[in-house]
């Protein structure tokens, strides 16, 4: 089975609102943040799920270290 890919429009559907899953893209990989408490409702420190947050995570105190704890759901192709 081939890996799922997400365009910008497809990723935007996974914004965590109204019970939908919450996905974010970082450096071309799409991660599921649905079960991460700080991402409840698809929002976290002013950011919204369903987006490419590659430029944002580098400024976060935790950096990319949190990514290893997340499930990968596919690749982001923009």
TrEMBL record:
List each copy of the Cytochrome b5 heme-binding domain by range: 6-77
Q: Domain of life, per the record? A: Bacteria
Could you tell me what this protein is called? Cytochrome b5 heme-binding domain-containing protein
Please name the source species. Loigolactobacillus bifermentans DSM 20003
